[in-house]
Design goal:
Helix content: 55-70%
Mean pLDDT: 86
Shape: globular
Radius of gyration: 21 Å
Largest sheet: 3 strands, antiparallel
Low-confidence stretches: none
Length: 370
């Protein structure tokens, strides 16, 4: 039977923030391409994905989210099977094997893997949280759970999504608190392992890092994306050139302008003021998400909310930094603004789970770390 208190506690603030960002996304997407026919096609398709996302988001907050604690392992293994399937049956697009095509639809399993990793880490750490923090021994299981999807995603190759999995896991570990000695050992191990990571990188990944350090070393090749993006952002100045008046995007100098570099289109047309407003909307979303995590009355909801907030936050940080030349170009979309079905649906699932946690906080007594 439906509890009317759920409707009374519906999180309208979160919905308004998300709707505002999505509206900015549709308007910017319309500006991101110069052809009228392509504009209409991309906007209609993105609206289509937002419609499906709204249905999935609704489904994500209607059930009791604590059921995910029981289903964490099956969800995780399904995501692993999909990652294996994409390496076996996936179609190669632009040199990467990231998508499963099912009839007219395409699915990017690495997006589902982000949510499944958050759920299984929330299940584990909600049971292991203590005032003293977790030790290295406590981190063995979560390390094994994370390293498998990380390796499968990196093999596609999709370094951006693989890195996000690690960053989200690291954010969760820092939130639940890690013992100081363990933290020092992990930091030292990570630093000493960097040379090995460098040796394992592919040539194009090394080129991206070198280009990040010095974009002008190959202005017509690897550095072209970043240079054109910085020109677009800088030319917007304070108030921008105006809607549909961005020359970098209109003349197609800006690559991937409707996906990875859509923030550059936004900054060129709406300037520093428009970019700050969008960043402020994201900041409101992240602060509200953290507020939901802190107000949750049981550990599973708290850790899962932190994971979702970190997933969205890291994507925003990397994408904006990438377009400004402050981060390497790794193909991370801007949540709810970049064009893309799998990314939009994953974000909407995360928002739905945040709403779920927010709506049900009054149903439980506050749980304390053991």
């Amino acid at each position: 039977m439906f509890d009317r208190r759920l409707a009374q506690h519906f999180d309208w603030v979160l919905l308004i923030i998300v709707a505002s960002i999505a509206t900015v996304g549709i308007v910017t997407l319309y500006s991101a391409v110069s052809s009228d026919s392509v504009r209409s096609y991309l906007c209609i398709k993105q609206l289509y994905w937002f419609g499906i996302g709204a249905v999935i988001m609704t489904a994500a907050f209607l059930f009791d989210y604590r059921l995910l604690e029981q289903w964490a392992l099956p969800i995780y293994f399904v995501s692993i099977l999909l990652l294996v399937a994409v390496l076996v049956f996936g179609r190669v697009v632009s040199g990467s094997q990231r998508w499963l095509f099912i009839g007219p639809f395409s699915l990017q399993p690495s997006e589902l893997a982000k949510i499944s990793c958050i759920i299984i880490l929330a299940r584990y750490f909600s049971r292991e949280m203590t005032d003293k923090g977790v030790s290295l021994r406590d981190l063995v299981k979560p390390f094994l759970w994370i390293i498998l999807p990380f390796w499968l995603i990196a093999t596609e190759p999709d370094l951006g999504s693989a890195m996000l999995v690690l960053l989200v896991a690291g954010s969760i570990v820092l939130f639940v608190k890690i013992q100081r000695n363990s933290f020092i050992l992990l930091t030292a191990a990570g630093a000493s392992g960097m040379p090995l990571v460098w040796l394992l990188l592919k040539d194009y990944q090394i080129e991206r890092i070198l280009t990040f350090l010095n974009p002008e070393r190959d202005p017509m090749g690897a550095g072209y994306h970043v240079i054109q993006s910085k020109i677009a952002i800088g030319s917007g100045m304070v108030f921008g050139k105006g809607f549909l008046k961005g020359t970098q995007s209109y003349l197609c100098f800006l690559p991937e302008q409707h996906t990875d570099f859509i923030f550059s289109v936004l900054a060129e047309e709406w300037g520093f003021v428009g970019a700050i407003i969008v960043i402020f909307l994201y900041l409101c979303l992240l602060v509200w998400g953290v507020n939901i995590a802190l107000r949750s009355r049981e550990n599973f909801g708290t850790v899962m909310a932190v994971g979702i907030v970190s997933m969205i936050g890291w994507q925003v940080f990397i994408n904006v930094g990438m377009t400004m030349g402050l981060m390497p170009v790794v193909g991370v979309p801007l949540p709810l603004i970049s064009y893309g079905g799998s990314s939009s649906l994953t974000t909407m699932v995360g928002i739905g789970l945040l709403m779920n946690i927010s709506m049900r906080r009054f149903l439980f007594k506050k749980s304390e770390p053991s």
